[in-house]
Amino acid sequence: MSIPRRQFLASAAAATLAPSLLAGNLARANSEGARLRGKAEHVISIWLGGGMGQIDTFDPKRRGDPKKKVAGSYYDSIPTAVDGVRLCEHFSKLAPLMDRVTAVRTVNHAVIDEHAAATNWMHVGRPVSGTVMYPSFGSIIAHERGAAVDGAPPYVLIGYPNVTRGPGFLGAKAGYLYLTDTGRGPAGLSRPETVSDARAARREQFFASLRAEQPKVEDKRLLDYDAAIDQSLKLSGPEFMRSFNLHEEKGSLRDGYGGEFGQRCLLARRLCERGVRFIEVSHNLNFLNGAGWDVHNGGIVDQHKLIQELDQAMAALIRDLEARKMLDKTLIVVTTEFGRPPEFDGGGGRGHQGSAFSCVLAGGGLKHSGAYGVTDELSKKIVSDPVSVPDFFATIHAAVGVDYAKNLYDGDRPVPVTDGGKPIAALFA
After folding, report:
1. Domain check: are 262 and 168 in the same one?
2. Which residues contact 182 (CB under 8 A, 6 or more apart)?
3. Which of 25, 59, 140, 308 measures 20 to 30 Å from 7, CA to CA?
4. Are 208 and 299 part of one and the same domain?
């Protein structure tokens, strides 16, 4: 039987291309199959506004002297539960728990002097763009994973609202619910005592009848607004609002967390139990030293008070989650906008440094090693295992089951979740 020339040429071409096409498909499949994916269900992200100095906290070096202008750490260091890993002496409670923690000591970016730009970078994972409103990593996790249970918000911000924490082009559904006072629920959701459940139900029925009379809309902004209303009605009920009743906890547990910041961390744990996927706890509400982590000049004198506050709250959170068998399902993240140089300024404090600084991961089912990455003798330059901000964010996303190589879309424009970041593979081994 003869075969037409055109059919023969087409078959020959297909046979020639088949191996390369198959190889390409297998490569793509293997790439997707090789993507790291953890088993964490929640993220508690602790934000240290101002710029935590790595050399005075999680990456201590030789002792310096601000009066003699000798570069180095402001404090002595202490050993931890992990051989060879040392911390600042004021982390006495966290040091025995460092086998559940990894201080990533080689995070870096190019922003030095701009707090706002660095804060944005450390929330959206990339530089500011004039054309795209990028979503924060909290909003991306909320968008991709949603709340863990129905009737809970996916994202809660315990701190002041800010565009850097927002959903960007993802829209209001990926936004946050915020509060600044741990003693009460979010503003606008708490019912007055005079409004009973029956009265609230009548109000909702009346509101539903009014909405039913309105024409159908297609405007995304109006749809987002309607979605926000629906969620607020769910959250204003007693079940979710009970999360804020910290007095239900034992007094000894509350005391163990410490003051205002510690109570925010305790609330974060309760919100995880209620089904919130991502919680940011801000440590820059009421500073004990008057300057926060931005320790220029004399602001460094009482920096130890901030470190001790972080030490107490974080250690209590780790132990509390572990006791409730929640630590492997809850990733604790500690971030800040940049680090501090080893040299002291004219007033004895420190300037800004983006070339190498520390961020911290704990729990979340990761394989912790106490520390990852090595800096030089003064924590100024990276010696090995650099971690870009996209890499650090990819690690977070992978730990909580978000595809870090995925594209999101601003209209028709593809936007990578992590701007090409790759997770720290050693934490998933």
Report:
1. yes
2. 158, 244, 246, 260, 263, 264, 266, 267
3. 25
4. no
Percent of the chain with pLDDT over 70: 79
Q: How many domains does one find in the chain?
A: 2
Residue type, 70: V
Contacts of 296 (CB under 8 A, 6+ apart): 345, 347, 349, 350, 351
pLDDT tens per residue, range 339-378: 999 999 999 999 999 999 999 999 999 999 999 999 999 9
Which residues constitute the domain of residue 204? 191-235
Q: φ and ψ at 407, to 5 degrees?
A: -100, 135
Query: Are both 230 and 256 inside the same structural domain?
Result: no
CA distances from 312 to 272, 330, 359, 371, 422 (A): 20, 18, 18, 20, 32
pTM: 0.84
Q: Which of 58, 32, 35, 84 is nearest to 359 (CA)?
A: 58
pLDDT 10s digits, 62-97: 999 999 999 999 999 999 999 999 999 999 999 999
Question: What is the Cβ-side half-sphere exposure of residue 220, based on CA atoms within 13 angstroms?
Answer: 7
CB 56 within 8 A of CB 294: no
Rounded Cα distance between 245 and 179, Å, is 14
Choice between 280 and 213, residue whose per-residue pLDDT is larger: 280
Tell me, what CATH number does 368's domain have? 3.40.720.10
